[in-house]
Every structure is written in C-alpha cells, then in structure tokens.
Amino acid sequence: MNQPGVSKSKVTASDKKNKTVHDAQPKIPSARHPSIQPIAIAKKNKKYGVTTTSTDTDDADLPPPPKKTKVDKLELQARQVKAVSPYLVEIERLKGQHITEVKKLKEEYKAEVEKFKDEDEELQHIQAVNKLKEEHQAEIERLKQQTEELKHTIEAQKSEIRIQEHLVQVGAAVRGRWFELAKGSAGVGQPVAAIVEAGERAITRGNIRADLAMLQLGYAALPSGKLAR
Question: What angle (nearest 5°) sits at the alpha carbon of residue 220, between those of residues 177 and 170?
C-alpha cells in the first residue's frame, strides 16, 4: 500500500527537478518574433551572397541614386537610337514604297479620267449631231429629194448631149462646106477640097444616127411643117 505512495512521491520530485533545469536554460526567441527577423533576413541574404538587409527602416537610410551625367544621357540616347534604327529603316522603306504606289495610282487615275473625258466629249458630239438631225430632218429630206432630181436632170442632159453629137457633126460638115465656098466667092483664098467634099456627103448621104437624133430630140418636121421643139 505504501509502494504506490513512494512511487508517486519519486515521480513528483523528478518532475520538479527537470522543471527547475528547464527554467534555468536561456530562452531562444522564435524566428517569427519581431526581434529576430532582421537577424534572420541578414543570415538569409548572406547565404545567397547579399550583404545588405532588407527592412522597412533600412530603405529610408539608403543614399539617393547617383545623378546621371550628360555623357550618361547621351549614351542612353545612343543606345535607344541604335535599338530603334532597324525599325526606322523599315519605316522609311515602307514609306518610299507607299509613295511609289500612290504615284502609280495617281497616274492610272489620271489616265482613266482623260479616257472618260475623251469618251464624254465624243458622246456629247454625237448627241449634238443627233439633235441637229432631228431639228433639220425635214430640210435634210428636202435636200435629198432635190439632189436626186438634179442627178436625174444631169443624166438626161448627158444623154441629150450624146444624141446631139451626131447632129453637131453633120451640121459642122455642112456649115464648113459653106464657109470654104464663101472664101472663093469673097476672094480671100481657095476653098479646101476635103472640107467641101465632107459637106457634100453630109448633105447628100443619109446618116441614121443623125436622123434618130432628129426624131429623139424633136427636131424632125411635123406634118404641119413645124418642128417638134
């Protein structure tokens, strides 16, 4: 009965001893504790080769960045220009190509405009001519009729001249004989025998073409003794 009591007393004494030892050891703060964070961050940065610590309070203590000199600015501008130079060249090439295409389109458009202008002028001319035809159609028809009548008259006169040619030849031979005989009577020279003989043949011999011309032209004597013309 006393054994359990002794055992309980020993356990209690041992626990008290362990607790006393534990309380005597120094307490190590947790890494999450605010007081340990700068140290932990510094150790972490040192592990990765960074010697500076990163805290909210340290940023205010950092010195301002150095100001850029004129040379630095020029170098920066030179690098920027060098970076965009290929794009500028391409832009200029596209710009020149665009200008060439625009000029070509303008020339084509100008040619089309000239073509349409010529066609429009030709169409206007045709329309004006058609309008004049409509306005003067009656006059045109009258002139056409007169022209046809004149053609018939000219053809008739030509035919009459061809028919009269035979009468003219006979009449010229007869009158030539008379002139030659008159020269001898007037004492102005001797008559030409060939002309006198031709006149004799015209008077004494028949001439069918001359006779037909007399009838066709109305020069033949009618029964009343009057000429038909």
Answer: 25
CA-CA distances (angstroms) from residue 33 to 29, 36, 52?
7, 5, 20
At 160, which amino acid appears?
Answer: E
| Range 199-213 average pLDDT | 84
State yes or no: pLDDT of 70 exceeds 70.
Answer: yes
C-beta of residue 68 within 8 angstroms of C-beta of residue 81: no
Adjacent-strand bridge partners of 227: 221
Least confident of 39-43, 129-133, 208-212: 39-43
Task: Provide the whole-model pTM.
Answer: 0.32
Beta bridge partners of 221: 227
Alpha-helical runs (H) found in 51-192 = 56-61, 70-135, 137-186
Domain positions in the chain are: 70-135, 153-216
- The separation between the first and the last C-alpha atoms of the chain, rounded to the nearest angstrom, is 198
pLDDT above 80 for 71: no
In the prediction, which pLDDT does 227 show?
55
Q: Is the pLDDT of residue 119 over 70?
A: yes
Please name which of 104, 212, 130 lies closest in space to residue 163, comparing C-alpha atoms: 212
186 alpha-carbon distance from chain centroid: 93
Q: Are 29 and 35 in contact (CB under 8 A)?
A: yes
Listed as own residue / partner, the contacts of 80-89 with beta carbons closer than 8 Å and 24 or more positions apart are none
CB crowding 216-228: b at 16 or more within 10 Å, else e: eeeeeeeeeeeee
